[in-house]
Each structure stands twice: as C-alpha cells, then as structure tokens.
Amino acid sequence: MFTSVASSCVRHGSRTRKLVTDALILTGLQTLSLQRTHTLFNPAPGYVCRAPAARSVSGSSVCHRDAHLPRAASVDTDQTEDFGSLSTDISSRRLFKKSSPEFQDLKYRDDDALDEEKGKEEEEELARRRPARRNTAYWYHLQCRKLIRDNKLQEALDLFSTDMLRVERLRPEEFNYSVLIGGCGRAGDTRRAFRLYNDMKKRGLVPTDATYTALFNACAEAPSKQAGLQQALKLEQELRRKNIPLSTVTYHALLKMHALTNHLQACVHTLREMLQNGHVVTHDTFHFLLMACLKDKKTGFRLALQIWRQMLKSGIRPQSNNYNLLLRCARDCGIGDPGLASGVLLSPVLKNVRRTSTNIAVMDVDHLEKQLFLLPAAAETCPEQESNQLIPVRQTEDICPSVDTGFSSAPNVLDIFEGRTGEVVSLGTVDTPSDRLALIGGPAGFLEKMKIDGLQPDLKTLTQLVDIVDPGDASLQMLLRTAKQHRVRLDVAFFNSAIRKAAKAGNMEAAKAVLSLMPQYNVKVNIQTFGCLALGCERKEDAVELLKHMEEAGFKPNIQVFSALIGRAARRLDYVYLQTILKTMKALGVGPNEVIIKQLEFAAQYPPNYDQYKSRNNYLVHIDGFRGYYQHWLKVMPAHCPEDEQAEQQREERRPRLDDRLTQRPRPTKESGDELIQTEENQRTSARRYTFDKRTK
C-alpha cells in the first residue's frame, strides 16, 4: 500500500503529498476516544485544534498550512490550523459547469431589476406550462355543432382554434374539421372551408364522406358560382385521381353543386356515374335534378315535367319538397316551343326502367339524356306538332279516383304520366305562370295530387300557389280554406304575395281587400306590404293616400316604395305625379338610388320623333317644367347609400337584443359626425351632378 502511495507521490508531486498528509491526520483523529472526539468535532468559539507536524512516508516535510489555507483562517504563526480547514480547496464534486456571461453579470445588477426579470421568467414559465386537460376532442365537436346550429359560426371557429388547439393543445380529429367545414359551407364561406380542409390534410387526418359532402355543399352555396364550380371540379378530380369511392349522400351534394353552379347536363353525367358505382336513386336525387331545371328559364318547365315522369316510372313517390320545386319551375321557367313540348310530353315513350333481381328500379340514363336534350334518336320518336293541335290521350281502365276537395280539377298532365286519364290536353297557350299551373291541374288539381300521394301542403306550397294563380277572389278564398283545413298558419309573406299579384294586375280594390283580411289571421303589415301596394298606385291620389296610411301606421317610406311609385308614374308619363313624389322624397330626406335615377332619366327625355310645335300631347304638357325641377332636385338631394341603409337595418335588428347595461352607456352625439356626413353627401351630389351634365351635353 505504501509503495503505491509513494509511486503516486512521485507521479503527481506536491498535490498527492498534501492528500496523504490530510489522510494521516484524519486517521489519527479517528483513534481518539469518543469524549475527545466530541470535543474535537464541536469546538468552542476561539478554540484551536493543534496537531503535531506530520511527515510524509518518503521523509519529506509536509508543506506548511500557510501555503494552502486562506489568509483569514490563520490565527497565529506557530503552525496552528482550524479544524476542517485543510480540505477547503478540495471539493467532493468532480464535475463543474461553466457559467454564462449573464449569470456572472447578476452580481452587478440591482435587486429591483433582478426581481423584475425573475417575475418575467416565472410568467413565461407559467405560459409555457401545459394546463391539465379537462375536455376531449369529441366534447369540442359537440360544442361547435351546437354553436353552428345557433348561427354562431365565428364563435365555433374561435373555440376550435383558440381553446382547443392553443390553450388545451388537444389533437383534433376528423369530425372536428368536418363539422366546421359544414358550417362554413352553409354560410357560403368556401375559402375558409377549403382552408380547414388543407389544414386537416397537413395534420395527417383522413377525410371521410362527411368531409367531402360538406366541401361540395360549400361549393354549391358559394357567393360566386363560377369560383365555387372551379373549386368543386378540382376536388372532384382529386377524388378520381386517388380512387376514393363516394357515398350516396356525397353524390347528392355533388348533384346539388352542379344544379346550382352548372347545368342539367352535368347533373345527368353525375347521375350516370352514380348509377355505375352501384348507388340507388331516391326522391332526393330527382329533387336536385328538378333544381337544375331552374337554370333554364326558357324550357325549364318542360325539363321538370320530363324528370317528374322519369321519377314516377322509377317507382319513386314524390315528396313535398319535390312538389314545391315543380311549382317554382312553373312560376319562373317557360315550356319552350309548345309543339315540341307536346310531342315530347304526350307521345308514347318506351320504358327506360328495368328492375333487378331484388326488385330495384334501374333507369337508362342514356335514354333519359336523349329525351331531355332532344338528341337525334329522341327527335325521331317525338316529332314536332302544331302548337294549336289537340292531342288525345288514350283511355285506360285505371281511372284516377276523385278526391273530395270541393273543387273540380282540370285535366292534369301529371295524371297522363301515370296513364290514368282519358281527357284531351292542349299545349297551345302556355305563356304565363297561370297557364303552366293549369297544365298540371290548376291549384285544385295540384293539391289533389298531393293528397293522393299522402302529402299535405305547407306554407311554402300555398305561398307559391298564391303567387301563380290568377288574381281573383275565388282563388284566394280556395287557398284560405285549404290553409284552414290543413291547419297551416299563414304569415305576412303569403298576404304580400296576394297583394302584389292583385296590384300588378291593376286591381287595387282586390289588393285592399286582401289587406283587410290580415287582421283576421293575426298578421301585421310590414314595410314590404306597402311596397306591394305601391305597385298598384296608378294615380297621384292613390300614392298620396298610401303615404298617408304609412305615416299613420308608423312606417317611413323607403327607397323601394318610392321606386315603385316613380315607376308607375313614369309609365303613364304623369309629370305632376312625378313632381309630387320628388317633393315628398325631398321632404323626408330619402336620397335616390341608381334605379330611381334611371327611371327619372327615362321620364325626362322627349319621346323620339315628337315635335312639340307641330302637335299637342296632354301627357307631355308639363315635361319642360318637370325637367327644370328635376335638375334643381338633383342638386339639393343627397345620394342614397346602400351601405348606410344596411347598417341602419342591422342596428334596428340588434337594438331589442342589446343588454341593459349597454343601453345605459352614453352614446355619441349626432353633432359629432355631422361634418363628415355632410362632406360625403356633398361629394355624392357633385358626382351625380357631373354625370347628369355630361349626359345632357
């Protein structure tokens, strides 16, 4: 042992000799008695422990204590040492970490600065610390779906992006994205819907049928139909490239997208792909096909009747929404060439529906496409006929049973599709919506068909019927009795449609009669009611009476009411009537919009080929006076701003829902914004005056 120690001393020099010396001293101390040991380890203040000078094993003298002890630790010069001071430079640690410059600089900083920096570090540490998870991804899915149902889409998006992703740092699932994409789609926010879809793919989540359905629905509801169509086509190409199969619901969303943004032929191609992939058509499938017929305003009603016939041949009974769409096609779309429509709708058509072993109807889409778009193969089987020709329908044994509705039903082309009638139908005069309604049985026959199918008319059905039927007391009374029979609660839109129909026909007495019926059904008038009445004010006295009734009812005439009155006056070239309306607008401070300016510009022009010095026209006697007043009126009237009107309407809608604490806050005074408002009005007036002077020159 001593040989190895000596060798170590030779290798390491003085440091090893010092370690040996200290070890010998500690060994000698351990041999002392217990009582003396207690005294040595707990010395009294000022007590100095002395030890004899130790020699190394090699005979060399031990270095004095002053060579390795601190100067303050030495008490005297006679080689006295404090107990335990021999190993002050030796630490039990063998690893040392380098200090940073910031740590070395701490001793030179003020205490306040150190406390402030320490507080900041603690705050950052608390911010970085992950809080305990209290919720799950599915819980956030339910909360977002509830907010979207309450029309709070932005709150749902904030809940997902802030609370779920940033605060709780949960990993989102596919259903979290799907419900938000569906909400954005119903709101028409296509850009945000696809942004969520891209973020979903970056996180490695696999989209499902619900995701694709929501994306196609977002494209269908896009404000810009062209942009929505482009996004949908890119998505459709992506799905085909990845060979992702679509469900029936997703195909229906794709049909809806093509129906609203594209055309009927694209819907037929999607229907063919749907049937090739083994899906079964339902009444929803034909609903979107009927929706596509609305895009064709010229022949959309004929296309809708052909699709209706195909639906009946497929063994699918129509639903209420299908009947409502058929009514809308009859109101908004034409039938095209009556002779061609007669040949297509009334000629015998070969069956294009076959049934499988499971008794499921599978239709021939190619034959349907030929019938709809009159391809050469279909044109040979459906020759054109004269428009005034009466086309007989063959008699069948299965006659449509009569339904006790109180009214006699007219010949119905819907019955012809089922082969249940032997009447004669003429397609010679199908020009107006009422003529197209008569083609499908009139209001009574249409309601009778719904009753046969086990359906009841709803408010939407009756509102569309009152907008199509001929204005008259008999049709309105029939619809009122139907509403009472089926317990349909009528609203103000139903009566406004009846008033507008009678006012456009020039029957002001019938419009006032409908107005008198509204209190009996507990329905209150609104500003749209007076706008519909304004369409029938042919004389100045009628307009003055209408404005008086509006004032008594507490309504201020808006720009739509004045536009209807100016349109009636300009159509009759009654310049006294026009000047009265302009004075009323000036008194009420209602500025003109672009539509009113165009109407007044038309009224202020002389008719072509008219010479006021050669002949006298009673309608144009006051045209010069009106032109002078119109130029003065343009200079003093403020321009109408649609944004201001929308903001005012939003404030009126939000005002009843404001909290009481908010209503007690002091509101800004009107005088604070008068200068800005007056400046904007002057700019608009100057721009309008410049436009009018330029047109006059």
From TrEMBL:
It comes from the Eukaryota. PANTHER family: 2-OXOGLUTARATE AND IRON-DEPENDENT OXYGENASE DOMAIN-CONTAINING PROTEIN 2, PENTATRICOPEPTIDE REPEAT-CONTAINING PROTEIN 1, MITOCHONDRIAL. Residues 107-128, 644-697 are annotated as: Disordered. It holds the Pfam family PPR_3. NCBIfam families: PPR (TIGR00756). Residues 107-121, 648-673 have a biased composition (Basic and acidic residues). PPR repeats lie at residues 173-207, 282-318. One of its GO terms (biological process) is tRNA 3'-end processing. This is Pentatricopeptide repeat domain 1. GO terms for molecular function: tRNA binding. Signal peptide: none annotated. GO terms for cellular component: mitochondrial matrix.
